[in-house]
Design a protein that fits this description.
Layout: H1 14-23, E1 28-33, E2 36-41, H2 42-58, E3 66-70, H3 75-86, E4 90-93, H4 100-110, E5 112-118, H5 119-123, E6 137-141, H6 154-157, E7 160-162, H7 163-168, E8 184-190, E9 198-203, H8 204-215, E10 227-230, H9 237-240, H10 242-249, E11 252-255, H11 262-272, E12 276-278, H12 281-293, H13 295-300, E13 306-309, H14 316-323, E14 328-334, E15 341-344, H15 356-359, E16 365-366, E17 371-375, E18 390-395, E19 417-420, E20 423-434, E21 440-445, E22 449-452, E23 455-458, H16 459-468, E24 472-482, E25 486-495, H17 500-514, E26 526-529, H18 543-553
Parallel strand pairs: 1-11, 3-4, 3-5, 4-8, 5-6, 6-7, 10-11, 10-12, 13-14, 25-26
Antiparallel strand pairs: 1-2, 8-9, 14-15, 15-16, 17-18, 18-20, 19-20, 20-21, 22-23, 24-25
Bound molecules: adenosine monophosphate.
Adenosine monophosphate binds next to strand 14, strand 20 and strand 21.
């Protein structure tokens, strides 16, 4: 063993907490609530995170215990982002758009001990949640005016506290523990490769390295002088890691609660002087339409320079459209299992001029420390020739090597991961080509899910309920391209007794029937009636054929 090696500094989120408190205490976090702007400094955020951590400790939450949030983007959610992992517990951010039944299942699966919930969510979505026994306490994060009518129901009252009262009496100072970099810091469930939710367990090390990746110039290039607006929800893969990256870089933050409509975005960008913002393409195509229609809005967002956009493919027209307003769109690709960023489209200096326009729509180059390959169905590497399509696989210190609690695929195997060539690989389920320069282009999706407005809809779950309907003989759900939402689900149906009257009757019953099982946005917009559904070699419904033929072959 050689002596004289470098210091062994554990890569933990305490680094971020300390750095932002010491170097950038006066930088601001602006939250736009529906009725007001709230501005806090990082000094206040870190002090309140200390109070929060003390209060959480008093509830008997130990190292490694899970603390859930059901919340939109706000300063309080940011305080949880710091307090929970830095005290050694695990922040479990739950998607606030899920049904109450799904939320209950996730709370139980993660064995969450505390639940922090926005009052607006508590009032609407959670009204009928049965909080599982593992949850010792529910802490409701108040709207501006504490609304007595929205106070928790009597049954749940024993569990409840209001956030401000919960932290109020606590001192801001806390003896933050020394943590190991391999301790868990966060938990986020994905439906990324099948319809079943699976937990992705981030470590302090993976999150810290991902944070640094966002700061790389050929990553997201976030820096101190930026004002960053992550308009992706903080429950979705740590808002793409941007809140942690902003605090590490010393960039100010602007948080949009839940509204991502163009008018709200313009107002916040203008108020906080936002320089970079991120969201899924649906949000930005609406925003672009708005800028074109309202020149006054364009003048109000002059501080905006860069838009890292991902979650779904970014079109050439979006890139060109924003360029006209002096804003650079950076195409990114990632998934919850990769913390989430894996690729960013930065222009290589050795690209020939004629290669540039086409390359700009690729999902991008692997961010330093991410390694990619494409493989055929036997797991053999495919060439980087820009034409051979194969499954994209990723090896990275911030990619998952398994799921929380060892969840496996639907066939009982852990199909999402493989180990060879001396590394662990995450099987992304995305089909891609890689060109000789290393640019990855996603060309298809092997996983059978529909992505609408940045959120997944399980086609399996829809099919299951359709198949349970007594009038249905066969059913499939597929995604149809949609200019606003990127994809919307369509139900392809074969009726038991196919007559015009029965079709009409089924159409009438469809939405009330489906709304028993799904939130409104997950219900297919359209029913397509078929005499028979196309089948592949194994007798399974061939969805590729269904998707291709949908436009021209549909009947009814
Ligand atoms: P999630 O885990 O919900 O973040 O979803 C990850 C998945 O979203 C990826 O595996 C892709 O299928 C899709 N995705 C993310 N970014 C892009 C992109 N830039 N282009 C196309 N698909 C994308």
């Amino acid at each position: 063993m050689l002596t004289g090696l470098m210091q062994q500094v554990p890569l933990t989120l305490n680094m971020i907490r300390e750095r932002v408190a010491v170097l950038y205490p006066d930088k601001t976090v602006t939250t736009r609530f529906p009725d007001r702007l709230h501005v806090a400094t990082y000094r206040e955020i870190v002090e309140r995170a200390g109070q929060l951590a003390n209060a959480i400790r008093e509830c008997g939450v130990d190292r490694g215990a899970r603390v859930a949030t059901l919340a939109w983007n706000s300063h309080r959610h940011l305080e949880l982002y710091l307090a929970v992992p830095c005290m050694g517990a695990v922040l479990h951010t739950i998607n606030a758009r899920l049904s109450s039944g799904d939320i209950e299942k996730l709370l139980a699966d993660a064995e969450d001990e505390l639940l922090f919930v926005d009052q607006s969510i508590w009032r609407t979505i959670c009204a009928d949640i049965r909080v599982p026994a593992c949850v010792k306490r529910v802490v409701v994060m108040e709207d501006e005016h504490v609304d007595e009518a929205a106070a928790p129901s009597t049954d749940q009252a024993r569990l409840c506290a209001l956030y401000e009262a919960f932290i109020e009496a606590q001192p801001p100072n806390i003896d933050w523990p020394s943590l190991g970099e391999d301790e868990a810091s966060g938990l986020c469930y994905t439906s990324g490769t099948t319809g079943d939710p699976k937990g992705v367990l981030y470590s302090h090390r993976s999150t810290t390295l991902h944070t640094l990746g966002c700061l790389f110039v050929d990553g997201i290039a976030m820096r101190e002088r930026d004002v960053c607006l992550p308009a992706v929800p903080m429950f979705h893969a740590n808002a793409w890691g941007f809140p942690y990256a902003a605090m590490m870089a010393g960039a100010a933050l602007a948080l949009l609660c839940r509204q991502t409509d163009p008018a709200s975005l313009v107002e916040l960008i203008n108020a906080a002087g936002v320089t970079m913002a991120t969201a899924v393409p649906t949000v930005w195509s609406n925003f672009l339409d708005h800028l074109r229609a309202e020149p006054a809005s364009a003048a109000r967002i002059a501080s905006m320079k860069r838009l890292p956009v991902g979650g779904a493919a970014v079109s050439r027209s979006l890139i060109d459209g924003f360029a006209q307003f002096g804003i650079e769109v950076m195409h990114c690709w990632g998934m919850t299992e990769i913390s989430p960023l894996g690729l960013t489209n930065v222009e290589r200096s050795d690209l020939a001029p004629e290669e540039r326009p086409h390359t700009r729509t690729a999902q991008g180059l692997p961010i330093p420390t991410c390694t990619v390959r494409i493989v055929d169905e036997h797991g053999r590497r495919l060439p980087w020739d820009g034409t051979a399509p194969g499954e994209l696989q990723v090896a990275s210190p911030w990619a998952a090597a398994g799921y929380f609690g060892g969840s496996a695929g639907p066939d009982g195997s852990s199909r999402s991961f493989t180990r060879d060539e001396g590394r662990e690989w995450l099987r992304t389920g995305d089909i891609a080509t890689i060109d000789p320069h290393g640019y990855v282009r996603i060309v298809d999706r092997a996983k059978d899910l529909i992505k609408s407005g940045g959120e997944w809809i399980s086609s399996q779950a829809i099919e299951l309920q359709l198949a349970n309907h007594p009038d249905v003989r066969e059913a499939a759900a597929i995604g149809r391209p949609d200019p606003k939402w990127q994809e919307r689900p369509i139900a392809c149906i074969v009726l038991q007794h196919d007559t015009p009257e029965n079709r009409k009757r089924f159409e009438m019953q469809f939405k009330p029937y489906m709304s028993q099982f799904f939130p409104k946005w997950q219900i297919p917009d359209e029913i397509s009636f078929w005499n028979d559904l196309p089948k592949g070699k194994t007798g399974k419904i061939d969805k590729m054929v269904l998707r291709q033929q949908f436009m021209r072959n549909r009947e009814g």
